[in-house]
Amino acid sequence: MIVVATADFEVYHGVVNELRDRGTTFTTVELDEELPQRTSVVISDADSADAFADATTVVADPDDPRRAVDRALAAVRGDGGRTIIGVDPGRKPGIAVLTGETVVAAFQVPLSDAVDVIEREAADASAPVVRIGDGSRLESATLVNDLEDVRVELVDETGTTPYLGTGARGMGDVLAAVNIARLEGEVADEREIEPTAGEIQVIKDRSREQSEHNRAIDEGLARRVAAGELTVDEALARHRDDGTGSETGSSETDDADGSEPSS
To answer: What is the distance between the alpha carbons of residues 118 and 141, in angstroms, rounded to a whole number?
Structure first.
C-alpha cells in the first residue's frame, strides 16, 4: 500500500489528487503515527522523509507530484522503476512514458516541443531509454540528433499503428508510441538523412500554408528545416528578412491557390 505522510500542504494536495485521479489505493498518516503494516512505499516531502528511513520512501516535489506517484507505483509493482519513452515521430509526435510495463504518461506535442518533453520525462529516471520509430525520416532524425545524455534506440515501427475503432480517433500516434516503447531497437547517436525532392517539396508546401502572404521558402531554407536546423516559422522569418521569394510559384503576386499568375 502507498502511504502519504507529509506536513507540506502542497505536497499532500498534489500527491493525493494524483493518486485519486489514477484510482490508486492509498492511505494517509500524520508524521507522528505508526505506518500501517501493509505499507509498501511512503510518499513524503524533503523535510520529513528522514522520519521514514526504515521504509521505501519517495520524496515529492510540490511542483511535480506526478513524478513522485510514478516512482511510488513503480516501487509497489516491483518493476525496478525503469523508464522507457516511446516516440512515434511526425509533425506532432506521439510520446508514451512507460515505467516497466505500465503507461504512466502520454503526450502529443509539436515537433519543436518534443525534445523538451522527452528530456523532462527522462530526467532523474532510472536508466531511461528513448525508443523512436524509424518512420517520418526527417522528424525522427531531428529527434535523434537533438536528444542528449540519454540512450536513444531507433525502432522498426512497422505494424505499430493500431486499428482505431469508434471514438478512438486522434489516439493513433500515442498508441503507436506505446507499441514502439515495447520494441528493442538499434542504439543511435545520430541519424543523417538526405531529404528527397518530394520531402523538400512537402516542407515548401507547408511553409506556403503557414505564410501570411502565401509564399513558400526557397530550397536552401527547406533543406535547413529538413535537417532540423530551423523550424518552418524560423525559415519563413528568414525568408522575409532576406527579401527572397524569387522561386517559381513563391512570389507575393501568386494567386491564393499557389498557381502562377497568367501572362
So the answer is: 15
Least confident of 41-45, 95-99, 119-123, 194-198: 194-198
Contacts (Cβ under 8 Å, ≥6 apart) of 103: 96, 97, 178
Average pLDDT over residues 226-233: 79
What is d(CA 148, CA 143) in angstroms, rounded to the nearest whole number? 10
Grid coordinates given for 83: 523508464
Q: Which of 10, 40, 11, 9 minimizes the C-alpha distance to 27? A: 40
How far is the C-alpha of 221 from the C-alpha of 216, rounded, in Å? 10
Cell readout for 49 is 522523509
Q: In what order do the strands lie in the sheet with 2-4?
A: 26-28, 2-4, 41-44, 57-59
Q: Is the pTM of this model over 0.85?
A: no
Tell me whether strands 102-108 and 94-99 are parallel, antiparallel or unpaired: antiparallel
How much is the pLDDT for 79?
A: 57
d(C-alpha 231, C-alpha 14), whole Å? 36
Give the mean model confidence (pLDDT) for residues 129-154: 93
* Joined grid coordinates for residue 234: 524560423
Where do the domains of the chain lie, and which CATH numbers do they carry?
2-77 (3.40.50.2300), 82-187 (3.30.420.140), 194-263 (no CATH)
User: Is 253 exposed, middle or buried, given 0-12, 13-18 or 19+ CB atoms closer than 10 A?
Assistant: exposed
User: What DSSP assignment string belongs to 159-214?
Assistant: T-SPP--TT-TT-HHHHHHHHHHTS--EE-S-------HHHHHHHHHHHHHH-TTS
